[in-house]
Amino acid sequence: MTRPFAPGYRIPTDLLLRAYASGVFPMAESADDQEVFWVRPETRGIIPLDAFHIPRSLRKAIRRHAFEIAFDHDFDGVIDGCAEVRQERLSTWINGPIRDAYGRLFDLGHCHTVEAWQDGRLAGGLYGVTLGRTFFGESMFSRVADASKVCLVHLVERLAAHGFILLDTQFTTEHLKRFGAIDVPRRQYEKLLAEAIKGEARF
Prior knowledge:
A hairpin with a 2-residue loop joins strand 6 and strand 7. This protein has a domain at 41-91 and 109-196: 3-Layer(aba) Sandwich (Aminopeptidase). The protein is 34% helix and 25% strand. By secondary structure, it is of the alpha+beta class. The strands form two sheets. A seven-stranded mixed sheet has the order 4-5-6-7-8-3-9, with helices on both faces. Strands 1-2 form a two-stranded antiparallel sheet. The longest helix has 15 residues, at 147-161. The model is unreliable at 1-7 (pLDDT under 50).
């Protein structure tokens, strides 16, 4: 897909991939801000793939097959959903340059989506960046209860089946901790990352 050039600040694709390889990622102050800042947390969130936990209530939801799951079908729809203003989140860090940069990564095969569809509508999803054997989770959203959680379960299943060894969540939240997310010091994370970006895994 050919994407239009977004006016204003632009994140070079090679710079973005080098940043991920060194444990750095971009964010913006708000959707209206046309610049980004670079983040290298002292403590990093990850979900160990061999310790992923599915809460009992979610297992029941998965068995109901309420959603059709798709991969890499609607990047623009997913990033729109992740950027939506909601009651629990009145602003977003996804601005124009970030949309443009991750759209180009998607076109190059370095950005991927997991989508939950219901009755022909996008009910929830997530997106992230792949490099080597690492998946860097960026954002997720739900318009229907449990939609993003079901996407996370399918993401982990896919990563484990396709040779990935590191799932980076950037930060941990109480929500992610229910699935086994943990905090690791930056030095430990960078060792894990250095190993994980070696070799190749295909999403």
